[in-house]
Design brief:
With 358 residues, the protein is of the alpha/beta class. The chain has 15 helices and eleven strands. Helices cover 45% and strands 12% of the residues. The chain is globular. The protein binds S-adenosylmethionine and iron/sulfur cluster.
């Protein structure tokens, strides 16, 4: 029976809720089928994106995030242009094919021009070959266009929770944190021409299985090109920490995250799906398990060691004291352990994007 449901052309909200609750043999069947879909549509290979967390300075105050503006305990940093370019150059030389530049959200002329300049320099340094994903929050369409023109290829902006009421419980109720603006930003990114990525946190307080099923349908409806999603992990210096005793146990958040990845792979066969770092926080083999059930993107952290510990979105973030070289060796072993190949030298564009742009 599970097999028949999994093969339906369109999974309904109630199918998804049921599948998110599977256990035992049914759960295994879900994972087996997702792995089969992955192999058929995107093959058993994993694209690398060197992750540069270039600044933890943020103008926003999301209730869940350790580097939110109001957390005065955070030591703020902003890498120099040279440090960012060195990291990008490391990724290029290691044949990663692409990088992700992520930061807190800032809206200023100075920030915009700096990113534009860096994009141009990175494209120059790599003969236009290194693909760049930005993850710098909500910006105006004009700015998204400017960055796209300067060489950004992809943009990651998680919707965090597609249910507006839930979104409002996770963010302050003001203009800066409006659900409407975040949804519009996602549309604008598509208009500007990006390979557009989104995602949600799994296991946040107040979230139901129905919410998660709707998150998957939301991603399908907006025809997203790439997704990064993973478990919510608490940080003691954030407002959401007060609900820590009401959360699902970590193992359940992890299990739900694996099922979300597997289901999304079945629903959107040719998109790129990342194995998030948060998965490894709960389970030392978390990212490998995500790759086994459908993820095909791995983001080795290439942020300089000195500041890594200061990009602390949640407690116990892993890999904060390893050098990029340590990461490199570790990744190869991890990916090989689940019989996938590292796609060195491949830019790894989302096949879904390539198809829709034809
Ligand atoms: N500032 C940009 C933004 O919010 O889109 C990009 C950087 S932000 C740190 C990247 C992602 O971290 C967010 O989209 C959010 O989903 C995730 N994140 C923040 N706090 C988290 C937490 N406590 N647990 C899990 N993920 C978290
Ligand atoms: Fe800032 Fe992003 Fe954290 Fe929100 S999730 S506080 S925008 S860094």
């Amino acid at each position: 029976m599970i097999k028949d449901i999994l093969k339906k052309a369109q999974l309904s909200q109630s199918d998804l809720v049921m599948l998110l609750q599977t256990t035992g043999e049914d759960r295994q069947e879900l994972f087996r089928y997702a792995a089969e879909v992955k192999e058929k549509y995107v093959q058993n290979k994993v694209y690398l994106r060197g992750l540069i967390e270039f600044s933890n300075i943020c103008g926003k105050d999301c209730y869940y995030c350790g580097i939110r503006r109001s957390n005065s305990k955070v030591k703020r940093y902003n890498l120099t242009d040279e440090e960012i370019l060195n990291a990008a150059s490391y990724a290029y030389k290691q044949n990663y094919g692409s990088i992700v530049m992520q930061s807190g959200e800032l809206e200023s002329k100075k920030f915009t021009t700096r990113i534009t300049r860096l994009l141009e320099q990175i494209k120059d340094m790599s003969d236009g070959k290194l693909r760049v994903t930005l993850s710098c929050g909500e910006q105006d369409l004009e700015i998204y266009k400017e960055w796209f023109k300067a060489g950004a290829d992809r943009y990651l902006l998680r919707i965090e929770a597609s249910n507006k009421e839930l979104y409002m419980k996770l963010h302050p109720n003001d203009e800066l944190h409006s659900y409407k603006r975040r949804s519009k930003a996602l549309k604008d990114l598509r208009t500007a021409g990006y390979q557009t990525g989104t995602g949600v946190m799994i296991g946040v307080p107040f979230q139901t299985h129905e919410d998660l099923a709707n998150d998957l349908l939301f991603m399908q409806n907006i025809d997203i090109d790439m997704v990064g999603m993973g478990p919510y992990l608490e940080h003691k210096d954030t407002p959401l920490y007060q609900y820590k005793d009401e959360l699902l146990p970590n193992e359940e958040r992890f299990d739900l995250s694996l099922k979300m990845i597997a289901l999304l792979r079945i629903m959107m066969k040719d998109i790129n799906i990342a194995a998030s770092t948060a998965m490894q926080t709960i389970d030392p083999q978390g990212r490998e398990k995500a790759i086994e059930v459908g993820a095909n993107v791995f983001m080795p952290n290439i942020t300089p060691c000195l500041v890594r510990g200061d990009y602390k979105l949640y407690e116990d973030k892993p890999c904060t004291d390893e050098s990029p070289e340590d990461c490199q060796r570790c990744i190869e072993a991890r990916i090989a352990s689940v019989s996938n190949d590292v796609a060195y030298g491949e830019q790894g564009d989302s096949k879904h994007y390539v198809e829709r742009r034809k």
